[in-house]
Design goal:
Helix content is about 40%, strand content about 15%. It has twelve helices and nine strands. It has helices at about 5-15, 25-30, 40-50, 55, 60-65, 65-75, 85-95, 110-115, 140-145, 175-185, 205, 235-240; strands at about 20-25, 105, 120-125, 125-130, 140, 160-165, 190-195, 215-220, 230-235. The radius of gyration is 19 Å and the shape is elongated.
C-alpha cells in the first residue's frame, strides 16, 4: 500500500473512531527543530562542553548540590528546546476542536502541543513553563528562569526555584501516570508519533491499549512496527497536513 492510500486509511480510521489518543515521542522534538540531549551527538557534545554526561548533570543531585552549574546547563542546553511547534500539532489542535482527538500524551517537556492550541495534554515529564518555589509554592514564568543571572531564587523566601520537569532518575508523577493509563484504556484508536512500541517512555502504557486501531507514524523502520495495524514511515507533519482537518 502506497503512502497516499495509507493516509486515506488513516483519515477513515480517525473519522470512524469514537476516542482517539496520540502519544508524542522524542521524534517530535526533532520535527520542531530541537535535538534532544539523549541523542548520541548531543550527549557527546554536552559531555565535552561540561565534563559530565547529561545523565549526571540533569539530576536532582546536581540541582541540589551544584545549583549554579545546573542552571547554567539548564538555560544553555535544555531550554534551547523552547522552539516553535510543528504543523503536526496545529492539525491535532484542529482535530481536538472538532472532536476527532481526545488527548495527547507526551514525554517532551516543551509544551509543543499547547503552543499549537491543544487543550487536553498530559505532560508525563512535566513542562518547562511551570516553575515553583518548593518552600512557599510561588509560581514563576519561564522568562524568570531564563533571565536570572545565576540561580533563580524565589522573591518571597530566597529559595532556589524548581522547574517542574522530571529529572533523570526521578519517580514519575503517579497522578499523571494514572491519567495516561485511563486515556489509553479508553481509546479505540492510538496514534504514535515519533516513537515506537518499544519506547522506554511509552511501552508500559501501550500495554493497556485494547482498542481497534494502533497506528505508528515515524521516519525510521523499527522491528516492533509489525505489531501495529497501520504504519507510515514519514515525518508526522507530512502525514497530518494531508488529512484535511
Amino acid at each position: 500500500m502506497d503512502e497516499e492510500k495509507k493516509i486515506e486509511r488513516l483519515r477513515k480510521i480517525i473519522d470512524d473512531s469514537s476516542y482517539t489518543v496520540i502519544l508524542s515521542g522524542s521524534g517530535m522534538m526533532a520535527e520542531c527543530g530541537y535535538m534532544g540531549m539523549k541523542t548520541p551527538e548531543k550527549a557527546y557534545e554536552i559531555e565535552n562542553r561540561y565534563g559530565v554526561s547529561p545523565e549526571d548533570i540533569f539530576t536532582s543531585v546536581y540541582y541540589n548540590n551544584r545549583p549554579a552549574e545546573f542552571f547554567k546547563f539548564y538555560r544553555s542546553e535544555v531550554l534551547q528546546g523552547d522552539v516553535d511547534t510543528s504543523d503536526t500539532f496545529r492539525v491535532a489542535a484542529r482535530m481536538e476542536k472538532i472532536g476527532k482527538l481526545k488527548c495527547i500524551i507526551t514525554g517532551n517537556i516543551y509544551g509543543y502541543p499547547q503552543k499549537a492550541g491543544c487543550k487536553n495534554v498530559i505532560d508525563l515529564h512535566g513542562n518547562i513553563h511551570r516553575n515553583i518555589c518548593p518552600h512557599c509554592g510561588r509560581k514563576y514564568p519561564l522568562e524568570y528562569i531564563k533571565t536570572a543571572k545565576k540561580v533563580p531564587l524565589c522573591q518571597d523566601c530566597s529559595r532556589v526555584i524548581r522547574p517542574q520537569v522530571a529529572l533523570f532518575g526521578e519517580m514519575m508523577d503517579s497522578q499523571l501516570m494514572t491519567r495516561a493509563t485511563w486515556e489509553i484504556e479508553n481509546a479505540d484508536t492510538l496514534i504514535l508519533l515519533g516513537t515506537t512500541l518499544d519506547s522506554e517512555v511509552f511501552s508500559k502504557y501501550i500495554k493497556y491499549f485494547e482498542g481497534t486501531n494502533l497506528v505508528i507514524i515515524h521516519k525510521e523502520h523499527h522491528h516492533s512496527d509489525s505489531r501495529a495495524d497501520l504504519v507510515i514511515w514519514d515525518e508526522p507533519r507530512n502525514v497530518f497536513t494531508k488529512l484535511g482537518y
